[in-house]
């Protein structure tokens, strides 16, 4: 093995600036290593053993990073929890993950305290003041900052969004190897995009911008991998388009992970604001999480150059990648399979479909076996032999490039025809008076479902029948009439998770609540 892995790099170059908090505070690798070591010693004193779990309800920044670095060198599972959840929802994850320690930041004190009942009082720790929680200092004060003995790799255990029923933890078996060796294996992720190591590992300065909450799998994986390669992590607290450009310029950010909503907001900035900042340091602006409308991506490529990379993947493992050149040759693709991944497109009977035919996307990845913790039935249900699906629909071209259609659950069946909301959303979002849009099916006595659009107007634009008519008129000649929304409602703010994922059920469910079943 080479010299990658945070703990190795931190010992070799303790003065390397490994992280920058949202408030601009810089942390050296030596400082982070000492903090992570003290926490391991403290939690071992609490009785934590290999395979145990640790939960963190913390904002983006160094507190969560220390939890990550401690657990991943001590053979524990780390579960970062979505801070938008309520106390009972948080408590469910703490209990279901069988956590032996629970850390809460005072920013989330109200819901964190409600969730505290899910774990014994002496296992609750707070950054700041949280009722019923011990101070974080209690567990680390007096602990040595030396590397702990018997180090072994841990892992993150993220909980999936839970579009149906309770969320489930995606759990992988631990390999029982050196944490730095495990971290080095992780670096294949950024290697897929051709991203090199940073200065402590023998490369040039590299900085990774964290744009979304760290409780998301991709954010943790990309940020963690960048750190293990010797990049500086630059955290943002709340994403803002102009602030993003400012941070890229200030920290000479070289790589980041974004979602198409970020692109739309960046492109909506006035031309003079966009021209104010130098973003030429950016070499890999990687995006995923939702299909990106072709014109929006073209505009980003024109502005930022050939640094816009795309991939498609799932917490469970496996995926595709599209370089800027791949995408220019196949506009709209999410790429072809990773070298260690395979794709399979099947019909409703589980039989493979011909090239170019829509079907359910199944994936597998070498060495990435997983289970939904405590739910063998769900683990098996979403599998086809050794492939798994998250319920997305798409098709493959002759040369193996994947195109996404939509989530199976979001597909509209109207008059027997399959209609993909994403295709309609991708056209409506291009309207200059539209900030965000969601399309879904609502009950229709004659057709089974009819198409409903919900639009968040751009800033300063009045909602109403005139805007609805203008949006529909803009679809003329671009979208078959059968795909036009029958009606458009307006909303002040679209319910999206900060990673860009649309909470479509929040919009859709009220229309179906009086029905026996939703289609």
Automatic annotation (TrEMBL):
Record bears the keyword Nucleus: no
GO MF annotation terms: long-chain fatty acid-CoA ligase activity
EC number: 6.2.1.3
Residues of the AMP-binding enzyme C-terminal domain: 423-501
Polar residues: compositionally biased ranges: 153-164
Domain AMP-dependent synthetase/ligase residue range list: 7-364
Identification of the protein by name: Long-chain acyl-CoA synthetase
Organism whose genome encodes this protein: Actinomadura algeriensis
């Amino acid at each position: 093995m080479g010299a990658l892995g945070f703990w190795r790099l931190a010992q070799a170059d303790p003065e390397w600036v490994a992280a920058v908090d949202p408030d601009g505070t810089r942390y050296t690798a030596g400082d982070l290593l000492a903090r992570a070591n003290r926490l391991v010693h403290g939690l071992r004193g609490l009785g934590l053993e290999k395979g145990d779990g640790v939960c963190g309800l913390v904002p983006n920044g160094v507190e969560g990073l220390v939890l990550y670095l401690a657990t991943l060198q001590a053979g524990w599972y780390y579960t970062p929890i979505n801070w938008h959840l309520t106390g009972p929802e948080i408590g469910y994850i703490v209990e279901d993950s069988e956590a032996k320690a629970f850390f809460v930041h005072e920013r989330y004190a109200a819901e964190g305290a409600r969730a505290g009942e899910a774990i014994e009082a002496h296992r609750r720790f707070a950054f700041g003041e949280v009722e019923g929680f011990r101070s974080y200092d209690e567990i680390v004060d007096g602990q040595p900052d030396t590397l702990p003995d018997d180090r072994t790799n841990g892992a993150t255990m993220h909980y999936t969004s839970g579009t149906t029923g309770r969320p489930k933890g995606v759990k992988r078996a631990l390999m029982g190897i050196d944490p730095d060796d495990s971290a080095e294996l992780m670096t294949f992720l950024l290697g897929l995009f051709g991203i090199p190591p940073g200065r402590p590992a023998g490369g040039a300065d590299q900085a990774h911008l964290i744009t979304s909450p760290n409780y998301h799998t991709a954010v943790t994986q990309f940020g963690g991998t960048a750190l293990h390669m010797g990049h500086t992590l630059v955290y943002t607290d709340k994403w803002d388009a102009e602030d993003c450009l400012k941070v890229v310029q200030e920290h000479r950010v070289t790589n980041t992970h974004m979602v198409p909503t970020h692109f739309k907001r960046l492109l909506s900035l006035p031309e003079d604001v966009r021209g104010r900042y130098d973003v030429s340091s950016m070499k890999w602006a990687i995006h995923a999480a939702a299909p990106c409308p072709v014109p929006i991506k073209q505009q980003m490529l024109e502005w930022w150059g050939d640094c816009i990379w795309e991939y498609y993947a799932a917490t469970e493992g496996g995926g595709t990648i599209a370089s800027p050149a791949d995408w220019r040759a196949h506009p709209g693709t999410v790429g072809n399979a990773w070298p260690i991944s395979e794709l399979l497109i099947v019909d409703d009977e589980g039989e493979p479909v011909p090239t170019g035919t829509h079907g359910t996307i199944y994936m597998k990845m070498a060495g990435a076996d997983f289970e939904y913790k405590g739910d063998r039935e769900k683990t098996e249900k979403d599998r086809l032999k050794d492939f798994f699906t998250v319920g997305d629909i798409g098709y493959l071209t002759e040369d193996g490039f994947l195109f996404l259609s939509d989530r199976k659950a979001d597909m509209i069946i109207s008059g027997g025809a399959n209609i993909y909301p994403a295709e309609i959303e991708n056209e409506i979002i291009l309207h200059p008076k539209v900030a965000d849009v969601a399309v879904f099916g609502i009950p229709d006595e004659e057709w089974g479902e009819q198409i409903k659009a919900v639009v968040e107007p751009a800033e300063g634009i009045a909602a109403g029948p005139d805007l609805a008519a203008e949006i529909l008129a803009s679809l003329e000649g671009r979208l078959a009439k059968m795909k036009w929304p029958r009606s458009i409602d307006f909303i002040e703010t679209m319910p999206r998770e900060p990673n860009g994922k649309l909470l479509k059920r929040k919009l859709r469910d009220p229309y179906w609540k009086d029905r026996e079943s939703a289609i």
